[in-house]
């Protein structure tokens, strides 16, 4: 018998975002690049999102959005943690278009899930590299909020 799959909440990443840059229709969808300009980490780990990196998105013709964000945060005790966070966002077309325009949408109405992978050389946080995590996220006009859960 295999172990039961469970998750536990660990921390929240709030990534502030800059203006969207669009590379246009590439043949597989519209490529967008969204700069990550700062933010904070709260919960079992605390710190600040560093002001570099971006979310590289492809918006498919059916409005499903493939996301791949690469950025880093620094913990309050000085560790730098690199993140590659892949995921998807999908929901009713009219609500996704409202989000694109920066208008508020109830996050419960949008499926926005991610799988963050972490890298760090800091011994205290090596456990981040030894587990699988999933994120439940919400997009706001000026930020993305991701609740990170550890798969146990």
UniProtKB/TrEMBL annotation:
Tree of life domain: Bacteria
Family to which this protein belongs: Belongs to the UPF0311 family.
Protein name: UPF0311 protein FBZ95_104236
Organism whose genome encodes this protein: Bradyrhizobium sacchari
